[in-house]
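Input (DNA-directed RNA polymerase):
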Amino acid sequence: MSGSMSEDKRDLYFKALNSPNYGSLHDKQHNLIQYLVRSHVDSFNFMLANTLQRSLESLPEHAFRTEYGQIISFNIKCRQRRISYTGPLIVTLGWSIDGVKQEAIPKHLGDVPVMVKSNICNLKNLTPTELVQKGEEAEEAGGYFIINGIEKVVRLIVEVRKNHPLCIKQPSLKKGGELFTEYALKIRCQKPNGFSRELTFHYLSNGCVQVSFQFSKVYYIVPVMYLLKGLLDVSDNYIYDELLKGNEKNSFYKSCIIFMLRQLSNEDLLSQSSVLKYLGSKFRAMYNNPWLSDEIMGERLLSDYICIHLQSNVDKFNLLVYLVKKLYAFVRGECAADNRDSIINHEVLDAGRLYSLVLFDNLYKWLRSIQYEINKLLSSKSYTTITPDILNEAIRRRKTIVSYALNYLMATGNVSAQSSAPLWQKTGLCVIAERLNYHRFLSHFRAINRGSSLKKHSIVGVRKLYPESWDCKYVV
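Output:
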């Protein structure tokens, strides 16, 4: 009986070898193998079709004033041409002088990495026979980049869930200032183009709430009442009523709201316009537009840093009211602290979003570098006014900054320490796709990595089987 079983197994194992079609290529690739890396390819394609355009549309117009009094402003349109595993990045630079539009200038900013089997790769939609003719594998699924002959894969790294408030109780929050407590609420606001900013609502021991955000690695703190007053042109009584809804019987909460409103009165900030002028005067150094009024600068601050995932000031106002209410409820013990280590509060940073964030950050850095070169040329007295010649010379000196950043990211897995891209970590973002065996190679595309940021913040909780974590394996 054992002999017959071994013969059955032998027939099963060598069935494919005895097939008359053994060694011949199929008309189509196996769907299962393509599915294993599809998330990487789809994320890159989504970036090309949607995120890239949205990033360029939201890229702020860069403007500056020369020493001769001319106001120069830039805006960018971008397109890529299909070429092997790298593609030339060509931008169309629109510019104006004192509000008068000039002729747009197309410029080649170097070759940038292209994901294999993406929509702009020349291997897209090829049959197994055509792939073999080009020297590729018949079941080539792509999903990686080729840098200096080495296959590199973008790691899928865990980050905090977007647009979702998390209540936090952390003793280290007391180091923020004299009145700061361990109670806070965090929310990571993310635009449709993938760009995000984190807001932290701090509860102070005197009952007030202040909001902190980051700009160029520096944290700024603003009382929440200043933001509410600056978003809408409403009376103090309207703000008081909105914050008090559902808590009419809480006398301590009432006194906290009144105290924060009195702070506005003490600063003589009684209208939306006065608050915007006050914020604009304090944060003017964050922008390079000295010719704009304080009120416009205040509007820019609220638009660029406060609840950036919302377009309407009414929606931003309502969200801030909700977040303040939730923070006070958390302090009173009416709701529990959120578990930041729970899978329900996580999402994954994919290849397409990482690529677009680094591209967006370096395009804006490139515009600032052009301003530096133009001012340098004007100070040399070789030019006395802005012309296409001086602009072309400034671009020529700085044209490799964008392509260098993307190639450096894929080659080393790191972004520059000076990068302003909203990333939780700036190292270990890409790894070599090792081909020790087929399973090892495919594991790079399916692995979810915790990353160094979650370890650094010490938010790992006790391993419990939470309802939302059923049938999920914890990453390491």
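The CA atoms of residues 243 and 321 lie 6 Å apart.
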